[in-house]
Amino acid sequence: MLETAAPVVLAALVAAAAGFGVAEPVIDQLAIKGAPTALPGPAYFLTVGGGLLAALLVILAGLPLLRHVTAPDTARFE
After folding, report:
1. Which of 39, 46, 72, 73 is most buried when burial is the number of CB atoms within 10 A of its CB?
2. Sign of the CA dihedral with 56 first, then 57, 60, and 61 last
3. End-to-end CA distance of the chain
4. What percent of the chain has pLDDT over 90?
């Protein structure tokens, strides 16, 4: 599980950081000068967390099939 969950979590964190990094100069150019910049609300973080949880559940659901397919007793040598 760690081999699959760690890259997914790391990719989500890198994507979120890249999103904030790209948005900052765009907001600076388009925003009214002197107006405070607001961070995303809880809905953003719930959506990202829910998507991450869904991805981890899909990975977790596929592990029994992977375990069955890669078991040594199911390997065929011809």
Report:
1. 46
2. negative
3. 31
4. 31
